[in-house]
Design brief:
Blueprint: H1 5-20, E1 24-36, E2 39-55, E3 58-69, H2 70-80, E4 90-103, E5 107-114, E6 133-134, E7 144-145, E8 148-156, E9 162-168, E10 183-184, E11 195-204, E12 207-217, E13 222-226, E14 229-233, E15 236-248, E16 251-265, E17 268-281, E18 284-292, E19 304-315, E20 318-328, E21 334-344, E22 350-361, E23 374-382
Parallel strand pairs: 10-14
Antiparallel strand pairs: 1-2, 1-23, 2-3, 3-4, 4-5, 5-8, 6-7, 8-9, 9-11, 11-12, 12-15, 13-14, 15-16, 16-17, 17-18, 18-19, 19-20, 20-21, 21-22, 22-23
Length: about 375
């Protein structure tokens, strides 16, 4: 109950101010149909996003998703092993963002539920240790980042550099569909169990540089023997890293980027990071990236991957995007992932996505996701 009090207060404040002012409102309706793991699942999403200028440089924002689906109720009933929970439809209300923001001349302060944007890679951001992943979303085509509840402060210096501080008092682990072990220890809510992220940005010639520090817990799970029982838990984690982006040294028509972290967890020092280049080739935007550490992996047990990705615009209404990745462990076990998506925009406020993903391999990160292989259709209307 205590966890929901700050969000409830923000919602009350926001609702009161909507009555007194004219908010900006963006809404969309979305139909999703996926075939995965031998079954069809479908849902209707209603996504609403509103922001309002309260006055004196204060802005309130709320973004929420209302999902209505028979698939949710079916899975809920089967997991509970009780048909009594089965029903025609089940609705789930999720607040993506809910915060109050102060925008000053050289500073910005935000409190509530929000997203961060650490990282320079368009694929996997290993430096973003603040937000957890959600692997349990039935209708997401890939692991999605969860927003966090906390406080963010950003200060801009006169030379264009900036300092960002994120303080997250409530830790949230990665969200899994099921746990591989029956015993799980969750980080208790306590003032000492906070997350702290510090990010300093600067310019060096044509390059954007970022320096990162993190203190908190690993969102992925570790295993420890407690009372003779293997138990999942989230280990304490400290990390420091760097990000960069700018022109490729040998051809400035291409973008060069990278991010990396030195981590300390369970008395072990490790490195996770990525390095990539992208640009316009063969009439399409293409890129290649080398990674160490994939979404949801424990910091001390990372895998490696080489990924290529591209976006091809055929005309004003049709676009293709795709990625192919080869993952491999330190003992040279290989896995593969391929996905593609066609986006068709017949009119300005309507978007149709048709795509699919394929995972395979041998005892690797991608092979463990083989049940997530899928095809899908996603239609969205914007209001």
């Amino acid at each position: 109950m205590k966890k929901s009090i700050p969000l409830l207060m923000l919602l009350i404040i926001f609702t009161a101010n909507v009555i007194l002012a004219s908010p900006s409102i963006d809404s969309s309706g979305e139909y999703i149909l996926r075939y995965m793991n031998g079954q069809f699942i479908e849902a209707i999403n209603e996504i609403n996003e509103s922001s309002i200028n309260i006055g004196n440089n204060f802005t309130a924002k709320v973004k929420f998703t209302l999902t209505q689906s028979r698939s949710i109720s079916d899975i809920f009933a089967s997991n509970c092993n009780s048909p009594i929970f089965a029903q025609d439809s089940m609705a789930n209300l999720y607040f993506n963002e809910l915060y109050i923001e102060y925008d000053g001349q050289n500073s910005n302060f935000l409190v509530g539920k929000y997203y961060t944007d650490w990282g320079t890679s368009p694929l996997f951001n290993v430096v973003n240790l603040i937000e957890p992943y959600n692997f349990a979303d039935l209708f997401a085509t890939s692991p999605v980042r969860e927003s966090v509840t906390g406080f963010q402060a950003i200060y801009w210096y006169q030379n264009g550099n900036s300092l960002e501080i994120d303080l997250i008092p409530i830790f949230t682990p990665d969200i899994l569909q099921s746990f591989p072990l029956k015993s799980v220890y969750f980080v208790p809510m306590s003032p000492s169990n906070f997350q702290l992220g510090v990010r300093y940005s600067m310019f060096a010639g044509n390059y954007n540089l970022y320096f990162d520090l993190y203190h908190g817990f690993d969102h992925a799970y570790s295993v420890e023997i407690l009372n003779s029982t293997p138990t999942l838990y989230n280990a304490q984690l400290n990390a420091g890293g760097m990000e960069f982006s700018g022109p490729f040294p040998f051809n400035q028509n291409y973008n060069f980027y990278g991010e990396g972290l030195i981590t300390y967890q369970n008395s072990k020092i490790n490195f996770n990071g990525s390095l990539g280049i992208n640009g316009y080739v063969f009439n399409q935007n293409m890129g290649i990236e080398i990674e160490r550490g994939l979404p949801g992996q424990n910091i001390n047990d990372p895998e490696n991957a080489i990924s290529v990705y591209d976006t091809k615009t055929f005309n004003s209404s049709l676009e293709f995007s795709g990625m192919a990745s080869v993952g491999f462990t330190n003992n040279m076990q290989f896995g593969y992932a391929v996905n593609g998506n066609f986006k068709y925009t017949p009119v300005q406020n309507v978007e149709i996505n048709i795509g699919g993903s394929l995972y395979a391999g041998n005892d690797t990160y991608y092979s463990s996701n083989s049940s997530e292989s899928e095809v899908y259709v996603n239609g969205t209307v914007y209001f």
